Amino acid sequence: MAQPTQTYASHRRFIPIYHFFVVPVLLINVVVTAIRFVRDPRLMTAWVVVVALALFFGVLYLRFMPVRAQDRIIRLEERARLERILPSDLRGRVGELSASQLIAIRFAPDDEAPELTRRTLNGELKTQGDIKLAIRNWRGDHLRV
Which pLDDT score, from 0 to 100, does residue 1 have? Predict the structure, then answer.
């Protein structure tokens, strides 16, 4: 099955059941239990607030941890790719790129990556958004967690 074309506007990954159901329901649960505690400040209602908070933050971390691990893998992959495709004057400077810069550069095809890397190292492109917006021919990442 062919993947849809990915662009700057469409590259963010939303998992509808997680982002639009689970997280909002758990957040509303925190608010509801906190209101219940304010109205009835007993040990048991306080405990329910603590459990609601634990569930909410636990679910957030269940998403955060694999994304963080994937970012580490992307950083490693991009360093290896840049070592292979960059001209010799830039190859030795790959270590100066931050993890977020490497994560953004992954969307650039091999023919655009050297110039984007140069512009990033020279301070012209500072943020992930700056780098991503400078990419002309987007290289999709359809395997993002």
Answer: 62
Domain ranges of the chain: 16-134
Instruction: Give, in degrees to the nearest 5, the angle at Cα 103 between 105 and 119.
Output: 35
Q: What is the pLDDT of residues 34-76, one digit of tens each?
A: 999 999 999 999 999 999 999 999 999 999 999 999 999 999 9
What distance in Å separates the CA atoms of residue 135 and residue 122, rounded to the nearest whole number?
Answer: 17
Q: Which residues of the chain are under the pLDDT cut of 70? A: 1-2, 10
Rg (Cα) of the chain, in Å, rounded? 21
Contact, 114 vs 87, CB < 8 A? yes
In this structure, what DSSP letter does residue 18 have? I
Residue by residue, DSSP assigns 64-123 as: HHHHHHHHHHHHHHHHHHHHHHS-HHHHTTGGGS-HHHHHHHTTS-TTTHHHHHHHHHTT
